[in-house]
Design brief:
Two copies of one chain form a homodimer.
Chain A: H1 2-13, H2 15-18, H3 33-51, H4 54-61, H5 75-87, H6 99-116, H7 132-145, H8 152-181, H9 187-201, H10 208-220, H11 227-247
Helix pairs in contact in A: 1-5, 3-4, 3-5, 5-7, 6-8, 7-8, 8-11
Chain A binds a DNA duplex (30 and 30 nucleotides) through loops.
Chain lengths: 248, 248
Amino acid sequence: MENQDVDRTLTLLWRRTLGTPQGSRGPKQRVSVDEVIRAGIEVADEEGLTAFSMRKVADRLGLKLMSIYTYVPGRSELVGLMVDEVAGEQQLPELGGSLRERITAVARQQWDECHRHPWLLQVEESRPWIGPNISDRYEWQLSAIEGAGFTDLEMDQVVTLVVGFAAQSARASIAASRAVESSGISDAQWWEVNAPVLERVMPGDRYPLSGRVGTAAGLEYNAVGDPDRSFRFGLDRIIDGLEELLDR
Amino acid sequence: MENQDVDRTLTLLWRRTLGTPQGSRGPKQRVSVDEVIRAGIEVADEEGLTAFSMRKVADRLGLKLMSIYTYVPGRSELVGLMVDEVAGEQQLPELGGSLRERITAVARQQWDECHRHPWLLQVEESRPWIGPNISDRYEWQLSAIEGAGFTDLEMDQVVTLVVGFAAQSARASIAASRAVESSGISDAQWWEVNAPVLERVMPGDRYPLSGRVGTAAGLEYNAVGDPDRSFRFGLDRIIDGLEELLDR
DNA sequence: CCTAACTCCGTACGCCTCACGGAATAAGAC
DNA sequence: GTCTTATTCCGTGAGGCGTACGGAGTTAGG
């Protein structure tokens, strides 16, 4: 039962190399798997993964709900296909220059992709689907640090570290923009609502460091934080740390 | 309307210092806000945040669904209260020793909390609720690096970096354990299903680095990865990088 | 030409949040 | 002591969701 779905999804993921095995008997399909995946990506781009639904995908394609299930086994499998699809939509940059530049390129690629499709960060699958574009990208990520002097084991850990950091930073960045644009409340307005209660409730001497650091951050950039700057700061520290590991 | 909910939730968050302002007129409440929050945490601990529902919280308390809404404004506000509650359930460790040890303590605290309540990583609020326990912890996190030589601006960035990294690592760790225990499929079984398709589809020479690194990892720990080890590896690199920043 | 496979889809079940309004309850007002 | 009014608890229903099941129409192979 479930095993069958796994096989089916894998052959869908690798449909470019395997070919599309459509039974020739009945009526022709009105759309294609690619169109279903594309429509899914559009819905998710516009409304996020929680508002993403099979019904909306069907509507966008001019089909009725249950027809979608003749293309993909179910919702979570469709999301898996969407993830691999967007991993392949931008060509992987040429890698060159110093180790620092190459690692930065890997992190930046992940950061950009998350910003292009914020719903990627909402996907939680216990086990990732291994598709062609994901595989290509992992190979590319490894090639960025190949020959730098890491052991094979370290290479995987380095990629995990860099890519995970980029994703985490993107998460903060996206949350920050969504806070402003989706709720329609600016940082200033938000503080106006919270401040009265918080001032009454936080004793003046209980949070000295938070107060000091908070006002410093507030002065520098008129917001609670600057995600892009935090990203560059953290990435530079991580690369410094990696270079030191190689020096030993 | 919405502004009212914000005020109400803030007074609920700070109920220990503000007191519980319960109108004295009608019938007494059968349970308390604390019990509602506790019940919510239990449900989320057992089933995760996607399966978490107001109905289950009500059932657990012997109330009917709609009664919960007399205690908290809605689902997302209840989750906000739960987040602050679990942030306060373990005492913050004393900070001492070297900078490395203090930063490690901060990261480890976050890592532990995420493992105790994996649903924390599923919470996505554009704007965080500022409750007492969250505030205390931020102050504690800052105190771990106070006096080390960072600027005020850097202090916030360092905490963001370390805490974010711990959360990201915990995410990987939890996903790994959930992969095994929830689906009931071991890593080996999973490969048995995937391998036949993947071998047929991945040309032998296309993924040389992935193959080399993958088998190295597979030999070292009989799994696709070792989250705890990746956590320690990454944290050490980050701290190395931070120390180098201070040396300059 | 018949049959078997295939696509599309209507219906239904069991979930979910939350708005609304009604009944029961208990404290304050008089 | 009675009345009013705030408050709690809850039933109902609207509007979402994923997907199991089965039926109708369509097409190619035998």
